[in-house]
Amino acid sequence: MIISHKYKFIFLKTIRTAGTSVEIYLSRFCGDNEVITPISWEDKAIRKLPGKKPQNYLDFDAQGNKYKK
After folding, report:
1. What total number of domains does the chain contain?
2. Strands 58-60 and 9-11: what pairing?
3. Would you give the distance in Å from CA 11 to the centre of its chain?
4. Which terminus in the chain has less CB density within 10 A, N or C?
5. What is the residue-level pLDDT of the chain in tens, covering all 69 positions?
6. What would the DSSP string read from start to end of 2-65?
């Protein structure tokens, strides 16, 4: 998922519709204040080519406690 405040859009990735490719492409235009959630380990190598890393999202531990990454 990507939430872009700068461009005013929310992207929700769907299964089997090139969602990861679109998410990786869109992440390249995101600034430092955008929300970008993690992708699978296999796709992380692709995102490193000049895309952004996951940022500004909340995650939950096994007990349900939320924390900011």
Report:
1. 1
2. unpaired
3. 9
4. C
5. 899 999 999 999 887 888 888 888 898 888 898 998 887 777 766 666 665 666 777 666 555 566 555
6. EEETTTTEEE---TTSSHHHHHHHHHTT--TTSEE----HHHHHHHTTT-PPPBS-EEE-TTS-
On the 0-12 / 13-18 / 19+ scale of CB atoms within 10 A, 22 is middle
Structure tokens at 8: 């005013």
Whole-model pTM?
0.59
Output the CA angle 31-65-61, nearest 5 degrees: 80
The C-alpha angle 22, 24, 26, rounded to 5 degrees, equals: 65
Q: Which range marks the domain in which residue 35 is found?
A: 2-68
